[in-house]
Amino acid sequence: MNLLKLFKIGRKYISICPTQLTLASTFPEIKIINYIKSASKYLPPFIVALIVWQYYMNIELAITILTTIFALSLPLQGIIWLGKRATSPLPLSLLDHYNHIQKCLIAKQIIGAKAIKTVNINFMDFMQLMNLANRHLSEDSDSNYFTH
């Protein structure tokens, strides 16, 4: 898979991932998403300060350019990692949770039995199911659907 496709999938995964901090200990991507959002807010002034500081310290232009490129690449690396994570297969430990949430959604008739995906389940599918469960099961007694 090329980097551009991973970047696009990573951007989509950012919008799909739930933002609950209670899940951050289980899913590292929630922390990575928070870091990426913070970097997009604070990185531009940091880059400007870095360039000005290196200019007044009489550091060579090549070092300034390399430092700036490295700082700018950090959020891009995070998005590409998220794209890789989104397409990686779901581990067996989370597959049980996926099946449990899916059964709860089928029992509440939120999704149909024909919509079941049983082959090549990845993290993107799991997060989409988690979002659907957050919207529809949060009011019910099954609100603690993740810890079954």
Give me the number of helical elements: 5
Largest sheet: none
Helix content: 55-70%
Q: Give me the oligomer status.
A: single chain
Membrane topology: Multi-pass membrane protein
Keywords: Cell inner membrane, Cell membrane, Membrane, Transmembrane, Transmembrane helix
Main location: membrane
Transmembrane segments: 62-83
Write a structural description.
The chain is mainly alpha-helical. The protein folds into two domains: 3-87, no CATH class; 92-137, no CATH class. The chain contains five helices and no strands. It has helices at residues 3-16, 28-56, 61-87, 92-107, 123-137. Helix 1 (3-16) crosses helix 3 (61-87), helix 2 runs antiparallel to helix 3 (61-87) and helix 4 runs parallel beside helix 5 (123-137). The longest helix has 29 residues, at 28-56. The two termini are 35 Å apart. It is found in: Cell inner membrane. Keywords: Cell inner membrane, Cell membrane, Membrane, Transmembrane, Transmembrane helix. This is UPF0208 membrane protein YfbV. It is a multi-pass membrane protein.
List the helices and strands and how they pair.
Elements: H1 3-16, H2 28-56, H3 61-87, H4 92-107, H5 123-137
Offer a concise description of the structure.
The protein has 148 residues and is mainly α. Helix content is 68%, strand content 0%. The relative contact order is 0.14.
Supply database-style keywords.
148 residues, mainly alpha, transmembrane helix
